Every structure is written in structure tokens, then in C-alpha cells.
Amino acid sequence: MRGAMELEQEPDLLLQEARENVEAAQSYRRELGQRLQGLREAQRQIKESASQTRDVLKQHFSDLKGTLGKLLDERLVTLLQEVDTIEQETIKPLDDCQKLIEHGVNTAEDLVREGEIAILGGVEEQNDKLWSFTKKASHIQLDSLPEVPLLVDVPCLSAQLDDSILNIVKDHIFKHGTVASCPPVQIEELIEKPGGIIVRWCKVDDDFTAQDYRLQFRKCTSNHFEDVYVGSETEFIVLHIDPNVDYQFRVCARGDGRQEWSPWSVPQTGHSTLVPHGMPLSSRPRPFCFVAYIFETVGQPDRRDSIGVCAETQTGFDSLQRDQAVCISTNGAVFVNGKEMTNQLPAVTSGSTITFDIEAVTLGATNNNEVGNFKLRVTISSNNREVVFDWLLDQPCGSLYFGCSFFHPGWKVLVF
């Protein structure tokens, strides 16, 4: 009886085991397929980057050859012009001397012919011709000869060409350009924040000394990257990020004392599922809503620190702990028109989100017991706690201004 039951159960067990093996094989196949896809992407990255690198190298050296040929041609023209200038300036005195000598030769030849005729003439004519010839010869300085410079005193042009420049150029050419298997900087982390993404990068080449970094991003549906940050920091929060939309980020660096940028890092894709704090979270109308997110507190807190809202822009103040303003200090103290409230919120730290919700309560004149004629209902929330109070102003205001002040550097605040 037992054997019959075992025979009946055995096909069911075998069938269940076969199904499990099929599911395991399907899962194994999916995993292998994903790894194969990743491997193909890696191969594609190598091939595409190698092709792009070849194109960049060919174009660069083609431009370099053209530039070097142009520079050599320009230098040759300059040297030839120098030869022409020296030749023209030094040959002119010799040409003038040549003209003077040739004129003297012609004069002497004429004088010789005239003298010979005078000597060969008749007796009666001879005296007159001799006298005329002698008088003419006396006016010509036959003992005055022009000075002809010695060859050692005359310029002898030559070209001094140092063949060592070929070795210098050859050394520079042989050292010019490098091929790197990976960029010197890479994106290390993408952290989603409400309405933004914090991008952090790091240097992966120990021999590379970075002076500045350059961060770019784009929507995955866009063909063009755009600059979003240039500076010495190794992280930056990119704002105005649409929720649930993929963005690509890449970063490069500029070496210390250099002008050109390094190759771009491998693009990293990230997105944020968090909506900005400034978006309405309920249907209740909120005419004014400000949100401050503290994402880093490198600086030391101070009781005079202030994060808040003011009704007017005034110069000469270093804090919002003053009239016409409401604020919270980094120790959690709340100030209204410069006076500290009894209620206190938690201290502001890294990761704190401070929300200011402000709506009008009354307009125009109020009763005589109230100082102002414009009342706003203010709700300040911080770290799951909030305080609610009425803010009295001297006159109605159509705009409010957010501001913050810290007495020690290093605070990083994101405002919505």
C-alpha cells in the first residue's frame, strides 16, 4: 500500500522538481543575458572610445602639421626679408661709389683724348689747345681717388642654422600626447534630493594633480551636454531636475598649471524620484512657501546665524534677527521682528529641512490693540516640529524675500 502511494507521489515530486529546475534555468538565463548585455556595453564602450580617440589623434596631428608648416613658412619669409633689408642697406653706398668711379673714368677718358689731340695739333693751334687742355685739367682733381672699402669691411651675408632644433623638436614630438585607458576623474556617487541630484566625483589617477573640475549634464533624450559647474569642489548639487527623468552626468579636470581639459569621465545616469519641497503638498493655497535644505554643515554654528524671510530688502544688516523679518537660528531659536520667541525648534544640522509657509490673515486696518495693519500667518517647520505665529507688519507687502547669513564659512544651503 505504501509503495503504491510512493509511486503516485513520485511523479508529482519529479514534476515539482522539474518545474523548479526550469525556473532556476530561466533565472540563470536571465542573469546570463544581463551579464552578456553588460559585457556587450563594455565592448561597445572600448570600441567607440578607441574609434573616437583615433579620430581625435588624427585630427590633432593633422592640425599640428599644418600649424608647424605655416610657422616654418612664416619664419622663412621673415629671414628672407632680413636678407633683403641687409642687402639693400649695405649695397647702396657701394652703388653710389661705383657711379662716382664710372663718372671719373669717363671724365679721364675724355681728358686723355683731348690731351692727345692737343699734343698732335699744329704749331699755331697747339698753344691754344694745350692752354685750354691745361686749364681744363687743372679743374679736375686727378690726384683725388674715391675710397673703396676692403672686402673684410663689407658685409658677407650667411645663415646660421642650428640643427639641434631638430633634436629638440623630436624630443617634444615623441613626448607629445598620451593615451589613457581611463580618464583621471570619475563620478563617484549620485544622490537624489528633492528637485535636484548631488553629484560627487573623485580623482582616480594618483599622478594627476587637478586644479579645476568641470561638470556637465543632459537629459538622456538630449544630444548635447551643458556646463553646470566649474570649480575646485568635488561635489555639486544640480537643481531643476524633473522627477523620474533620467539624466546623464560627466566630469573632467584641468591639471595644475595647464589650460586644456582632461578627457571626460564615463557618463553616469541618475534620476530623482523626490519632488521639490516647494511644490504644493496639499490643496490648501499657500501664497508664500520657502524651503531651505541644509545638505552640508562644514561651518560652526553661531547664535547670530539666521535663515528666514524678510518683508523688504535693506542694506547694512548682517542678520535677519531684526525688524521686518522672521527667522530661525542654527541653534533652533525663532525670531520675529528681532525678538526671540519662547517656542524653540530643533537645532539646524546637516540634512535639516526648514519650511516657511506664509499666508495673509488680514488686510487694511486692524483694531487699536495691534501695532501693524498687515498680519501674516507664519508656520516654520523643522525636523518634524513646527511653530505657528502671526507676523505683524507696518504696511502691506506684495513680495517677500528669502535670506540667510552665517558667521562661519562652510554652510551649504539649497533653497526652493
UniProtKB/TrEMBL annotation:
MF terms in GO: identical protein binding
Subcellular compartments: Cytoplasm
Keywords: Coiled coil, Cytoplasm
Record InterPro entries: FN3_dom (IPR003961), FN3_sf (IPR036116), Ig-like_fold (IPR013783)
GO cellular component, one term: cytosol
GO BP terms in the entry: negative regulation of cell growth; negative regulation of G1/S transition of mitotic cell cycle; positive regulation of receptor signaling pathway via JAK-STAT; positive regulation of transcription by RNA polymerase II
CDD domains, per database record: FN3 (cd00063)
Keyword Cytoplasm attributed: yes
Residue span(s) of domain Fibronectin type-III: 183-276
Keyword Cell membrane recorded: no
Top-level taxon of origin: Eukaryota
Family designation: Belongs to the cytokine receptor-like factor 3 family.
Function: May play a role in the negative regulation of cell cycle progression.
Name of the protein in question: Cytokine receptor-like factor 3
Organism this protein belongs to: Nannospalax galili (Northern Israeli blind subterranean mole rat)
